Each structure stands twice: as C-alpha cells, then as structure tokens.
Automatic annotation (TrEMBL):
It comes from Cupriavidus oxalaticus. Belongs to the UPF0065 (bug) family. It comes from the Bacteria. The lineage of its organism: Bacteria, Pseudomonadati, Pseudomonadota, Betaproteobacteria, Burkholderiales. InterPro entries: BUG, Bug_dom1, TAT_signal. This is ABC transporter substrate-binding protein. Transmembrane segments: none annotated. Residues 1-32 form the signal peptide.
C-alpha cells in the first residue's frame, strides 16, 4: 500500500511540475507582449494624402519605424477640418498604438470653435512637438497681382465682388487668418473650405478661387514655375534656408506685422501609459536629430523643433499652443465653446 501510494504521489507531483513548466513557458509570450511596441503602429493624419501634413508624417513615419522596430502605418482621414482624424485617435484605446500627426487646427481650434467636436484639447496629450509649418499666401494665375501689396490693393478694390480664398476647412487657422486679414483691410474676403491642403491647392491651380492660405510645400515652387500660381508671401518671421526665395510678410508696406505659423506635433490619447509615451518621444527625438530628415522637413517649409526628453517639456509646449490659439480666436472676435 505504501509503495503504491508513494508511486501515485510521484506521478501527481510529476504532472504538477509539468503543468508548472508549461505554465511558465506559456507566460513568456504574455510577458513579451508587454514590450512596447509589439505590433505595428497607426499614425493618423487628419487630411487626405498629398498635403503638407501627409508629407511630413511619411518622413517621420519611416524613421520612427526603424527606431521602434515595428511598422508605422500612415492612415489618412480627411474632412471636418481634422475632426474625423482626431475622433479616430480618441476612439482607439489609450495604449500608444495609435498616435496623431496633429496641429493647433485639430487639437485646439476645432474643439474650441466647432460645436460638432465632441472632445476638448485636454483629451489629447502631446508626446513631442515636431515643427512649425510656414504658412503662405498664393494667388491664382491671371489674378493680376505680382506682389503682396498689389494683391492687398486689389482686395480693397473688390468690395462689390469679394476675392475668394481656399483653406483646409472651416475654423482652421488659415480660415481665421483670412478673417483677420479681411478685418485689417476693411474689405470682405469669401472663404471657400476644402477637405484638405491637396484639394485646396487643386482648387487654386484650377482657378476655382482667387487665392489660398496654406502651409508651404515644395511642390508649390514647381507649380509657380509652371505658371499655375504665384507665391506672394510667407507669414513667418524667418524661414529655413530652402525657403529664402519667398518674400516675408515683414517686407509688406501695409501689414508687416501680420505674422503667423502653425505649430504641430505628435499627440496620443490622454491616459496613455507614460512609459509608452516615452518610447514614442525617444523615437521622435531620434528622427528630429537626423540631418537628412531635418533637410527634408526644411525643404517642405518646416521650422523644425528641438528634441525634448520629458513630459514636462511636452506639457509646456501644449500650454504654449493653447495660448497662441486663444489669442488668435480673440483677435478675430470669436467666442469659444468652453
């Protein structure tokens, strides 16, 4: 009896040990899955392919993919002045696998001005700022203005039939700049919203509108050489070397202080684990430190941000964006939803 019971005990013990070993082996993949990122990342761009945001995101996406050793898939969601793309990010889990190529348009202006935006800026967290886009004013071919001041004179003379202008959408910074410009000139300007920069550019080149206010892209120069449009000014205080051929707003006799840029960065859904945000921030910083990427971004009209290494710095940049947006809204006499 003793021998039989002892044999049975050893058999049970062996089974238990085997089960433990299998359990330990089974636990390893689960632990490995906790390493971030363990699968491809989605980089959401809130405008159609071909625009300034899309071009910039694809430059970053390739570098970030190499840094984190996972594929970064750029996903374009145009429409609603960025609302559709922003909502896509906020509908996803706060796990870092979906991040946002955002700007003050979608993260700040939309929820502050558009009642259809069911979110607030604080629903996003800035992982890292990436650049300021340089905004330009371009006139259609045949408008009859080869300088900004001549364009402004033409706008003042066209009160009976206001000049029309294209932007990426209603309540974007470009739309508010148009409102502010109209107020400065004392002349009406008619806003024509498009679903993104690429459609707005096509509208301008096709003669559907008289001018456009858009973030600069290198393709604008080729279109100017082809006689399809004319770049009249950049609203920036200074420009990257690649853009030195574009007149600055400070050269205008009439509105030399009408300066604007649009800040942007990579955002995640609020509540994303800090350690995962740190991984993304490090990868973004590595991209910003690469001379070839710096050159590509500057050639696309970006004033590139310095890499940051803490959430405190990111939060400070977030607050600065909020301040700039609030000042712009007040300058055109608009009220916020808050």
């Amino acid at each position: 009896m003793y021998s039989l019971n002892r044999r049975r005990f050893l058999q049970l013990a062996g089974c238990a040990a085997g089960t433990s070993a299998l359990g330990a082996l089974g636990a390893r993949p689960a632990l490995a899955a906790e390493t971030f990122p363990a699968r491809p990342l989605a980089l959401v761009v809130p405008y159609p392919a071909g625009g300034a945001s899309d071009t910039s995101a694809r430059i970053f996406g390739e570098s970030i993919s190499k840094s984190v050793r996972q594929q970064v898939v750029v996903e374009n969601y145009g429409g609603g002045t960025g609302l559709i793309g922003a909502n896509k990010v906020l509908a996803a889990p706060a796990d870092g696998y979906t991040f946002f190529h955002g700007s003050i348009n979608e993260v700040f202006l939309a929820p502050l001005l558009n009642p259809a935006a069911r979110y607030k800026p604080q629903d996003f967290m800035l992982a890292a700022p990436i650049s300021d886009a340089n905004i330009v004013l371009m006139a259609r071919n045949g408008l009859g203005a080869d300088s900004l001041d001549k364009f402004l004179d033409l706008a003042k003379q066209s009160k009976a039939k206001p000049l029309t202008y294209a932007t990426v959408g209603i309540d974007s910074i470009y739309h508010l700049m148009g409102d502010a410009l109209a107020a400065r000139l004392g002349a009406p300007l008619l806003h024509v919203p498009y679903k993104g920069g690429a459609p707005a550019l096509q509208g301008l080149a096709g003669g559907e509108v008289d001018f456009a206010i858009l973030p600069y892209q290198s393709s604008f120069d080729a279109m100017q050489q082809q006689g399809r449009l004319r770049i009249l000014t950049s609203f920036s205080r200074a420009l990257p070397p690649a853009l030195k051929h574009i007149p600055l707003i400070s050269q205008s006799r009439q509105i030399p202080d009408f300066e604007y840029t649009i800040g942007g960065g990579y955002f995640v859904k609020a509540g994303t684990p800090a350690e995962r945000v740190t991984v993304l921030r490090k990868a973004i910083g590595e991209a910003l430190s690469k001379p070839d990427i710096l050159g590509k971004l500057e050639a696309e009209g970006r004033t590139v941000a310095k890499p940051i290494d803490s959430q405190a710095q990111a939060n400070q940049a977030f607050d600065q964006y909020m301040t700039r947006v609030t000042q712009l809204i007040r300058s055109v006499g608009r009220k916020t939803n808050a």
